Amino acid sequence: MRRTLRDASAAFARSPLLIALSVTTIAFSLFAFGLFGLVALNIRAALQQVEERVEVRAFIADGTDAESIAAAAGDIEAFPEVQSVEIVTKDQALARARKELTEFSDVFEAGVLPASIDIRLKPGFRDPATVERVAERLRSYPFVDDVRYGEDWLVQLYRLRNIAGVAGLALGLAFAAVAVIIIGATIRMAVLARAEEISIMRLVGATDGFIRRPFLLEGFGKGVLGGLLALLLTWGSMHLIDRYLNFHTVFFSPSLAVLGVAAGAVIGLAGSAVAVGRHLRGL
Amino acid sequence: MIRFHEVTKEYQRSGTALKEVTFRVGKGEFVFLTGPSGAGKSTILRLSYFDERPTSGVVRVSGVTSEHASRREVSKLRRRLGIIFQDFRLLEERTAEANVAFALEVTGTPRPQIAPKVSRVLTQVGLASKATAYPRELSGGEQQRVAIARALVNDPFVLIADEPTGNLDERATRGVFQLLREINASGTAIMMATHDLELVRHSDYRTVELNRGQIVFDSAQTGGPEA
User: Fold this and answer.
1) ipTM of the complex
2) Which residues of B touch A201 (CB under 8 A)?
3) Is-contact A250 A279, C-beta < 8 A?
């Protein structure tokens, strides 16, 4: 193991330029993937914020007594999909409308707007089908006049979300594939640069395992360094975007960041194993 | 020690390189392999250190047979073989002593043993004073001596030499050949492919001549020393 470490560090010392080049290549291909990940993450966060606003409003027929409304609200709160329930009286509805639609504030008169039960749904239950199911149950209450939840808007939102999801997955896979291919080529280059050394090692009786080990370590090291550099670049880009474009962006959580660097290490290690293995089989 | 039994080697592109070759090299023997280019000399050498396997027939070297040897067994066997080439195959960015030490390092020799072995073998080939020189600072003859030192450092029972003097001038050739004779005199067998008929003529070692993949002459069969 000591020799493996010495060999790998000697490789770093002997050809710093080649190593720097491969670390940079790895870093940039992971950076491209990282940037994409960051965009995907932020789109998801933004969509989630919009989704937070999904609300079902059940309008109550005039003259319904407060006890029935309260009982129904308690009932509804127990639905598995429901996060919170709020009872809005006619007066509150008026106040809210005046506040939200200031230019029409004098148009509204007391008693025009109906009372309602406003329902927010738990995350994971905000898709059109589920919302419609909840709406259906709300309509079954005899004193519920109408149920509104911005059906068209919600369908659009989910279409957008699905497109983003599918496009994200496809692009993510493409970016990951490109990263793996570029990293693989970089490592193969490192192996070829030392082909002479490898052939002499074979000639004097070094075992395959012995030849492979320093390359695996080198690939692992490059992957980790490339991953860290990519993380740094991504973080730097996010700050630039934050500062100059005034976007508030979300960064990877620590565990996601560690996962990214670990992915770099795994790609480096696996890439080396494949490249050296292929090279050795040809000898 | 080295035995070829009806060995045929065919290549997909260039066709038959060896055809049912049978011969053996005994312990401590010195054998020249001669013949025109493409006669099969290098193929015999490559088969001897299991760089290649025969298409048919069996190569047996110190108990390792071409039919069953695993890559690991081949690695272990090569530690007991010394192999040198026309183009020396030294690592350019390492000094002479580092090139020799390399053969010990990659076969797991304990570190404290490396320096004394390297120094002993460099002295043996007459290069003790140039231990810290890089290959580009050495003449062709000196580079080949470094390669020989690297081949000797694991105390091989046979030295396999593929045109070791092919790139050397006459003086260097004589020097390297003299060194090989001394190595042989101390008990290491030598199997050497060469084009240099002068060298062959002026020594009384066994000569195996090849042509078109077949043995056309073996001095051991015509009254020379028997293997």
Assistant:
1) 0.86
2) 102, 106
3) no
Task: Report whether B31 contacts B190 (CB < 8 A).
Answer: yes
CA distances from A272 to A92, A219, A227, A228 (A): 67, 5, 16, 19
Interface residues from chain B to A (CB-CB < 8 Å):
49, 71-72, 75-81, 83, 89, 91, 93, 102-103, 105-108, 150, 154
The residue-averaged pLDDT of B188-215 equals: 93
> Whole-structure pTM over 0.80, yes or no?
no
Instruction: Name every residue whose Cβ is closer than 8 Å to that of residue B10 and which is 6 or more positions away in sequence.
Output: B16, B17, B55
Tally Cβ neighbours within 10 Å of residue A106: 8
Number of neighbouring beta carbons within 10 Å of residue B121: 24
At residue B51, φ and ψ (nearest 5 deg) are -70, -25
Quick check: B193 pLDDT over 80?
yes
Residue A168 CB coordination number (10 Å): 17
Residues of chain A found within 8 Å of residue B102, distances taken between Cβ atoms: 200-201, 204
Contact A200 B71 (CB under 8 A): no
pLDDT value of position A247? 74
What pLDDT is stored for residue B224 in this prediction?
Answer: 44
A211: nearest CA in chain B? B106
Mutate which of A3, A203, A210, A281 to disrupt the B interface (most B C-beta within 10 Å)? Answer: A203
* Residues B179, B195: Cα–Cα separation, whole Å: 18
Q: How far is CA A26 from the centre of its chain?
A: 22
The answer to whether B75 contacts A206, with C-beta atoms less than 8 Å apart, is yes
A210 near B106, Cβ under 8 Å?
Answer: yes
Residues of A in contact with B49 (CB under 8 A): 203
The listed range with the strongest mean pLDDT (A109-118, A177-186, B1-10) is: B1-10
